[in-house]
């Protein structure tokens, strides 16, 4: 008898909960959601200056059943705008594609579940800034380096191309006069093919149509370059000798097979001075080692000042 009464109580409770839920879910509620904007079919001769609008906020009214169903789907809210069609249908003003509320309501209405009523949305008009897509050919500037120090390559080389086509908005294109790339010479393993990637100064608004360049050295065995060498101070019998000009410019020839062993310290160690006590016009001399050949020094003499070491 007690068990039967318990069953009756549970059934009545369940019916009450279901009835209460049905009443609640049949009522209308207001809810706000955000829809991410996705631009599609951007005309080939257009470029968006900036994607100012990332999302649209919508307030709508719907029965609890519909809201619950929307939450159960757990899908990302996305609304697409076909700029190919819109740009033809709408007049463009002051460099903007204008998407008015009539188009927004149509697009958003298609995304809402049946039975939903849109109350408001923000923004109510989209102004999509665009520019005509421009093309321009600019020269390539190759920056040769040795452990981040600038060097001037004297070896003759051939590049696969000396200029590159870039595209983007006119305002961005006008700021680009060249495209740079950097090659660290002590990473060169062979003369036959050196491939490097071109640096894009404005990757979000400029497109480089050929992102790599290939180089081939004419001399397959040696590489020749010029760089600045900093001169160290020299100490002798508690006296410091400091060069009045801290740098010299030197020209080297080095086997390509030996490049990976080269750094600025090894180049600096090639130089020495004789008769430094004379202070003025001290000749800069180079050690002619087997792997590193110094073929020119400028200036070939420097002056020193001296001071007592502390």
Could you characterize what this model shows?
- This protein is of the alpha+beta class and 310 residues long.
- 20% of the residues lie in helices and 46% in strands.
- The protein has six helices and 24 strands.
- It has helices spanning 2-26, 64-73, 83-89, 101-111, 170-173, 264-268, and strands at 28-40, 46-48, 55-63, 78-82, 92-93, 96-99, 117-122, 126-146, 149-153, 157-159, 163-169, 179-184, 194-197, 206-208, 212-217, 222-230, 234-236, 239-243, 247-255, 271-273, 282-286, 293-298, 301-302, 304-308.
- Strands 2, 5, 6, 8, 9, 11, 12, 14, 16, 19 and 22 form an eleven-stranded mixed β-sheet that branches. Strands 4-1-3-7 form a four-stranded mixed β-sheet.
- The longest helix has 25 residues, at 2-26.
- It is elongated.
- The N and C termini lie far apart (108 Å).
- The mean pLDDT is 80.
